[in-house]
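Holo model, guanosine-5',3'-tetraphosphate. Inputs:
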Amino acid sequence: MPVEDPVAEAARRRTFAIISHPDAGKTTLTEKFLLYGGALHSEAGSVKAKGSRRSATSDWMELEQKRGISITSTVLQFPYRDHVINLLDTPGHRDFSEDTYRVLAAADAAVMVLDAAKGIEPQTLKLFEVCRERDMPLLTFINKWDRPGRDPLELLDEVEKLLNVQPTPVTWPVGIAGDFRGVIDRRSGDFTRFTRTAGGATEAGEEVVSADEAAEREGPSWQAALDELELIGAVGSDLDPEAFLAGISSPVYFGSALTNFGVRLMLDGVVDMAPSPSPRPDIDDTPRPLDAAFSGFVFKVQANMDRAHRDRLAFFRVCSGHFERGMVVTHDRTGKPFATKYAQQVFGQDRETIDDAWPGDVVGLVNAGDVRIGDTLWADEPVTFAGIPSFAPEYFSVARARDTGRFKQFRTGIAQLDEEGVVQVLRHPDTGDQAPVFAAVGPMQFEVAAHRLENEFGAAVDLSPTSYTIARRTDADSEPALRAMRGVEVLQRADGTRLALFESSFWLARVEADHPELTLERLVAEGMSS
Ligand code: G4P
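Output:
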């Protein structure tokens, strides 16, 4: 039942993202959440084109689109219990990209999926660091319990040691990995017993039984689980809502996304524990009350999501008030009015016109020409939210149009990709757009940029890697001295920021030591991607 009050609507919402190392089960868990949310009526498994997604990375866009739930889907909204779930989709890239970081900037919490056989993997660690930097509450789902995996206590130990976060199991598995019987809910002591459904296409059969009955039915497995729980209880890893909200501890759930075991408990955990949208601080750190007039911030811009449309969508998260399609909002950076006649919600490949949105919701604005990542939109009462910081790039490649006859298309394309933040585009005053340098936090961003330049703009590109690996922000005064040095390059971003590039941190340290007068500032989120 619609409530129509921003504070009450915000309280019903949970806006979160799922993070994982590739293959841990993010896609599967996403599908199962949709199944439990009633948003997938067909077989859950059919959303994904099995096998095809393992193909060449450069085809990601078409591939991901074929999969339905895609890097471009951005947000999946569905009702669950009396709540509205906004599940932000982080890109399915194999390596880290800035896009993920931006999506996380729009989430209030994250679910970290671990593979029970693998534990913490490199990408889990990087994504976790992004969440940590934002003090984002994190829930943990230890997946694939239906097949042989590691010892649960050992996994918890790894979470604690590698992430420096206190794992607080909410559920505990009964039966070893590979012979998964169900979970004990530590809060109530109840045992939820699961039964398989064919291929996990429907919700798993769940039966909640008392401890006595469980002891009788599960025998040694039940006793083993109780023994483990006693050990955990002794080290004080009980659920602590405050520590969770501060990002210090993480509630842990065990399950198997493929067979739907434990999925409902996980989703209940998100609803019961993850925070609802709260007032967002502006650049002066003054929170914008939820019931203030409409405001939102743009965290993602994407062109050509749909080839047939050839349009450009700017996605914003509502921060306060009531967004109604058709309302005229102010684009804070330019001060210009913006009519929101074409506001959409993107669900997989389907787009739907959206009429209302509340704090925590995500709206895509079609053909929002001037709107860029980090921009604020507001109605009635002005507000400026802090932009989303760009990552310190660590990969730099010189880009050249393969066919000089296509230079115009090349230039249009790089301007577009720069605005979308697919790669950062750096220019040298002498060579400008002839040979810009693409800068990225992960090499995959180059592949995506090259693929899109060729396919969307008809401008094939040659990329030559450079030997630079580290960037510092500098200024006009320091530029001539830096430029005169060996092993240093100074390039400019479109926003005028000057970046000094160095071949190694060793070289940078020497320049810093020898020339303390030069401006060489660290970039935000430095080293997070290394
Ligand atoms: P990702 O998005 O994190 O990359 O992972 P995804 O969900 O695609 O899952 C990766 C693989 O792990 C898939 O198998 C998927 O079926 C499997 N998987 C996910 N959850 C579970 C689980 O709970 N138990 C088991 N046993 N497997 C699980 P695949 O064969 O690599 O791909 P596909 O051909 O099934 O797509």
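The first strand starts at residue 13 and ends at 20. Residues 220-234 form the longest helix (15 residues).
Archived with the compound record.
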